[in-house]
Amino acid sequence: MTLLRAENITVSEGDTPILHPVSLHLDPGEPLVVLGETGSGKSLLAQAIMGTLPKDLSPKGRVVLGDRLLDAARPAGFRPLWGREIAVLPQEPWLSLDPLMRAGAQVSEAHRLVRGLGAAEARAQAQEDLARLGLSGAEDRYPHQLSGGMAQRVAIAAARAGGARIVIADEPTKGLDAARRDEVADLLLAELAHGGGLLVITHDLALARRIGGRIIILREGKVVEAGVTRSVMAAPAKEYSRELIAADPETWAVRRKPPAFAAVLTATGLAAERGGNQLFSDISFDLSEGRILGVTGPSGCGKSTLGDVVLGLVRPAAGRVERAPGLPPTAFQKLYQDPVAAFPRHRTLGRTLADVARHHGQTQCQIDALMPRLGLAPVLLSRKPGAVSGGELQRLALLRLLLVRPKFIFADEPTSRLDPITQKQVIGLLTETAEGEGCAIMLVSHDAALVGATVDHVLSLAAPQKHTELNAPIVAGALQ
């Protein structure tokens, strides 16, 4: 028996269609993957099926859920089913978590209010859920005390707590290392053993392969190819599908290491703590103009904290950071892992970028020149942050940063929301900025292949209180 059937789902902005008719079905025990580049309409499709589209977008089509027939144009009819029949794992955990509630309370609340468990049973179940996702001991932390990957896992636990048979997972492993990615994928797949339905929205080729089942590939709001995931990934029939799969970082050429110039900053004996626990200690390195330092390690090991220490946003527990003399504070910039939290929600993106350009002596011409280099359409400038995809917003965050013409960039998972094609384009622009502008870059990524092909040195953070010294260059694309 089909759990869910979506028929001729479309989404329009005014008179402009942005998602063309898409039909799909979910059967018990068989996952469905929707794969595509950033801005292809993947999340719009999920939101239309859930009835959660922004008010300025107009959906059409119908959704059959069990014995219920729902009109996509009337999203209020979907609300009674949220959490109970169908649940969504959101792409932006920071927006889905209550900043004033501890992690454990947010998960137990769903068990109590949606599933109807008693308070004690709900708390115990929440602890078990978090432990299964590698978050033992995190139940007393607030969202701002969690790394991006940890926040994503808390959001997953909270979304699943209602017991819905159908789960729509929108980029569920964004920001997670490979081990955590596979754990989350296996956790989602485990629900299928009980006759559940799973729809995974992703640009991650490795996740698509891990999930398996059937696949739909979207581009510019249209279905390009559909079929069995294993068959399509192994032998795609369409040119775009082949291009998308071939853009995997595993196929990238290794970047040639540039000569060393003057140091932009020097870190000596750095250590940091969080919640009384030491994240890392005794980290020292020099980073010169034009060089890229890769920072790797599992979620929660302190990668983002290291960047905040280097930028002076967090005081180190030990050690010091020295910057090259003569550089203004604005020369040191951070490209945030979650750009949705870094943009004013109620202003158009064009106005925000114009203000930054004006403040730093740039013009609209510079914005217009960077837009196509980042694969961004001019129409996005007239929208507010909530009306663009996560990947588009991440590239707009990079554009805003480049308007400042920094000498140092801490790029915190800058391609975690991007499909392989766009990811390669953005990393290319970052390396051009390093080499052409003499900018030093610390690049955080969970993708070992991307790091191996891009950076000059690697700093690998492991479990708290352990780290690998910065002393080995990239050799033949492998981390050493």
From TrEMBL:
Which protein family is named in the record?
Answer: Belongs to the ABC transporter superfamily.
Ranges where the ABC transporter domain occurs = 4-245, 265-479
The record, for PANTHER family, names: D,D-DIPEPTIDE TRANSPORT ATP-BINDING PROTEIN DDPD-RELATED, OLIGOPEPTIDE TRANSPORT ATP-BINDING PROTEIN APPD
- Asked if the record carries the keyword Nucleotide-binding, the reply is yes
Q: Which organism is it from?
A: Roseovarius atlanticus
Q: Which UniProt keywords apply?
A: ATP-binding, Cell membrane, Membrane, Nucleotide-binding, Transport
> Which residues lie in coiled coils?
none
- What kind of membrane protein is this, topologically? Peripheral membrane protein
Q: Which domain of life is it from?
A: Bacteria
Primary subcellular site in the record, as a coarse category: membrane
This protein is called ABC transporter ATP-binding protein
